[in-house]
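User: Predict the complex with S-adenosyl-L-homocysteine.
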Amino acid sequence: MPESPADPRTAERDAMVAMQIAERGVTDANVLGAMRSVPRHRFVPDDLQSHAYDDGPLAIGHGQTISQPYIVALMTELARLTPSSRVLEVGTGCGYQTAVLATLAADVWSVELEPTLSARAAETLSSLSIRNVRLRIGDGSLGWPEAAPFDAIVVTAAPADTPPALIDQLAMGGRLVIPVGTSWQQLWVVARTPEGITREPGIGVRFVPLR
Ligand code: SAH
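Assistant: Here is the predicted structure with S-adenosyl-L-homocysteine placed in the model:
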């Protein structure tokens, strides 16, 4: 998972966490630690290696993007993971957020519509010896019913409305972190509580659409 201390990009990651993530208000020490340890450059195409730690999203092919580091950290913090969490991710993409989630949770299930991206993510995750992840190709708006319920669901592509199947697959106390909207989105946390489903609005964001 984390590369050796000799990894020349450790300093870049430390700077990314300090300036882009902690500076903007992410405080969870476990999340900051995961963002320092996962080698983001391994998830981006070769020609973009020098931009891997930039403060923005990057194109990963097939019209898709790897999310901005701050947004990955924020969504992970909002998911409130513990070492026993079972997590569903919708939109594997290059697998970077998957790796961050897998560092903090017990098991991650991740669904991706685009087979080429899923295959590449599988290779990268296995090259980093990240083994607590299961990948599937398909429509993530249907969730992963056989593995449900989940303690957290993180959606990294934006639907116009929250897919009902994802709410159904939340465990008691579970949290769904999801950008909802069309041209831009609001980041929502939908939670299953003993009193019922709660919805908490967050910051404005921009994601590729959930197809
Ligand atoms: N988590 C990724 C972000 C990927 S961008 C990362 O860290 O890099 C969002 C991804 O969602 C894209 O790869 C896109 O192909 C995928 N996607 C879009 N609609 C989807 C759907 N209905 N089901 C599953 N994946 C979908």
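Residues 64-67, 90-91, 93-94, 96-97, 111-114, 117, 139-141, 156-157, 208, 210-211 surround S-adenosyl-L-homocysteine (CB under 6 Å).
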